[in-house]
């Protein structure tokens, strides 16, 4: 009777979670952690000089009061950010009129200017407040740092200007490779210059088609690069910039962090703990069964939450990481099959019970293996720091040590039980 009530309650909870998932499923960019800055021609501009005004902005943006402009004649904050005469730059960058160049504050003191010619050659100029170290802008396919190509500029200790394209092969500084990358630079040399308190990085690239919404990585470091090897950044961000409309979508980086945390807790801690209970506490019947079912149900809920966040990241950032996404879907299917196994569990006396045990045990082991593998792939693809790798490695090590110790104790228990005399003996005749 208790088991029947538990199953009814369990099924109701599953239905409720399914309805909650439908309700929370992302429908637009607002639910995906973006704060959009839309720009439109300034309708109050009497000179019709193609200035832009902010219609909607992120209230947490430090540049909230800044407007976006293509004009050099502005006042206040607009003039400060976008009104600088660029004639100090080497040709052809200094020859472009500021009235023809789109100018957009994009993050902190970073300002992005660009001008696209009819032949699809785009001139890009990034500026930011500069003291020491380096400043960079990266172009990404999916909003991730790993796999992106970046232009990085700096002035060394002797005051010599340096600007290089880098390929971000991995999260470690040794995997940021100079003079590599996929940006289609043309034959015009890129330049880096200091003007007042600002550093300017200027380069030209010929893209196959006009840029639309493009994930951009922005970062800076206060320490000088050594032998062209970049030092670790002091801060970074990722934005989705629409070059066709000069609009900024600020990507909520906390979603990636929460997705990783939920995945590690669900697949790295709770679900393995439930499997350990089922294997090594069978002698505590029926306590082990209820513990196993409850722990695995909790792990499934947390894993489902990680999947929901992963869907949001995929739809909002176009964060298409084929291996990570494919394994995640595969593990989710196995998890659902394991939940179904709970309702299809035959009685101990059933002739199908042995086959059900095979199905449940091996599907569970496969799911745990690929779940752990997917956590590792996610940490690698997201370019997470060493603290994530060390933390998950420590968790894996604790789990493996616990399994080894419990397996040894289980073997000793079985050996002791087999050595005990039978409870009933016949006296020999």
Automatic annotation (TrEMBL):
<feature type="transmembrane region" description="Helical">
    <location>
        <begin position="366"/>
        <end position="384"/>
    </location>
</feature>
<feature type="transmembrane region" description="Helical">
    <location>
        <begin position="121"/>
        <end position="139"/>
    </location>
</feature>
<keyword id="KW-0732">Signal</keyword>
<feature type="transmembrane region" description="Helical">
    <location>
        <begin position="326"/>
        <end position="345"/>
    </location>
</feature>
<keyword id="KW-0813">Transport</keyword>
<feature type="transmembrane region" description="Helical">
    <location>
        <begin position="288"/>
        <end position="314"/>
    </location>
</feature>
<dbReference type="InterPro" id="IPR006593">
    <property type="entry name" value="Cyt_b561/ferric_Rdtase_TM"/>
</dbReference>
<feature type="transmembrane region" description="Helical">
    <location>
        <begin position="260"/>
        <end position="281"/>
    </location>
</feature>
<feature type="domain" description="DOMON">
    <location>
        <begin position="108"/>
        <end position="221"/>
    </location>
</feature>
<dbReference type="InterPro" id="IPR045266">
    <property type="entry name" value="DOH_DOMON"/>
</dbReference>
<feature type="transmembrane region" description="Helical">
    <location>
        <begin position="390"/>
        <end position="409"/>
    </location>
</feature>
<keyword id="KW-0472">Membrane</keyword>
<keyword id="KW-1133">Transmembrane helix</keyword>
<protein>
    <submittedName>
        <fullName>Cytochrome b561 and DOMON domain-containing protein At3g61750-like</fullName>
    </submittedName>
</protein>
<feature type="domain" description="Cytochrome b561">
    <location>
        <begin position="224"/>
        <end position="415"/>
    </location>
</feature>
<keyword id="KW-0812">Transmembrane</keyword>
<dbReference type="Pfam" id="PF03188">
    <property type="entry name" value="Cytochrom_B561"/>
</dbReference>
<feature type="signal peptide">
    <location>
        <begin position="1"/>
        <end position="32"/>
    </location>
</feature>
<dbReference type="Pfam" id="PF03351">
    <property type="entry name" value="DOMON"/>
</dbReference>
<dbReference type="InterPro" id="IPR005018">
    <property type="entry name" value="DOMON_domain"/>
</dbReference>
<dbReference type="GO" id="GO:0016020">
    <property type="term" value="C:membrane"/>
</dbReference>
<keyword id="KW-0249">Electron transport</keyword>
């Amino acid at each position: 009777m208790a088991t029947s009530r538990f199953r009814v309650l369990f099924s109701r909870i599953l239905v409720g979670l399914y309805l909650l998932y439908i309700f929370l499923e992302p429908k637009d960019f607002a639910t995906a952690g973006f704060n959009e800055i839309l720009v439109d021609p300034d309708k109050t501009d009497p000179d019709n000089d193609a200035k832009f005004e902010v219609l909607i902005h992120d209230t947490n943006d430090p540049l909230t009061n800044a407007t976006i402009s293509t004009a050099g004649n502005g006042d206040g904050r607009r003039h400060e950010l976008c009104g600088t005469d660029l004639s100090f730059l080497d040709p052809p960058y200094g020859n472009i009129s500021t009235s023809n160049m789109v100018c957009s504050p994009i993050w902190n003191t970073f300002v992005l200017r660009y001008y696209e010619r009819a032949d699809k050659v785009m001139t890009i100029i990034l500026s930011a407040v500069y003291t020491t170290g380096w400043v960079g802008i990266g172009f990404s396919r999916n909003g991730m740092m790993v796999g992106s190509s970046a232009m990085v500029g700096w002035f060394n200790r002797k005051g010599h200007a340096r600007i290089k394209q880098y390929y971000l092969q991995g999260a470690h500084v040794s995997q940021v490779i100079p003079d590599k990358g996929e940006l289609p630079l043309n034959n015009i040399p890129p330049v880096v210059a200091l003007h007042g308190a600002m550093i300017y990085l200027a380069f030209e690239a010929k893209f196959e088609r006009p840029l639309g919404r493009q994930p951009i990585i922005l970062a800076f470091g206060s320490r000088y690069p050594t032998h062209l090897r970049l030092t670790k950044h002091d801060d970074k961000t990722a934005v989705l910039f629409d070059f066709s409309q000069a609009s900024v979508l600020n990507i909520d980086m906390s979603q990636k962090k929460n997705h990783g945390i939920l995945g590690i807790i669900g697949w790295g801690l709770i679900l393995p703990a439930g499997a350990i209970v089922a294997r090594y506490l069978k002698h505590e019947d029926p306590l082990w069964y209820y513990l196993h079912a409850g722990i695995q149900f909790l792990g499934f809920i947390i894993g489902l939450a990680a999947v929901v966040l992963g869907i949001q990241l995929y739809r909002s950032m176009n964060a298409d990481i084929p291996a990570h996404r494919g394994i995640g879907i595969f593990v989710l299917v196995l998890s659902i099959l394991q939940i179904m196994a709970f309702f299809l569990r035959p009685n101990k006396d059933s002739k199908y019970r042995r086959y059900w045990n095979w199905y449940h045990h091996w599907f569970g082991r496969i799911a745990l293996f690929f779940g752990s593998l997917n956590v590792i792939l996610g940490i690698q693809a997201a370019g997470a720091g060493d603290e994530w790798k060390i933390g998950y490695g420590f968790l894996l090590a604790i789990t493996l040590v616990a399994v080894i110790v419990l397996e040894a104790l289980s073997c000793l228990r079985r050996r002791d039980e087999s050595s005990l005399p039978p409870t009933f003996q016949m006296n020999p005749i």
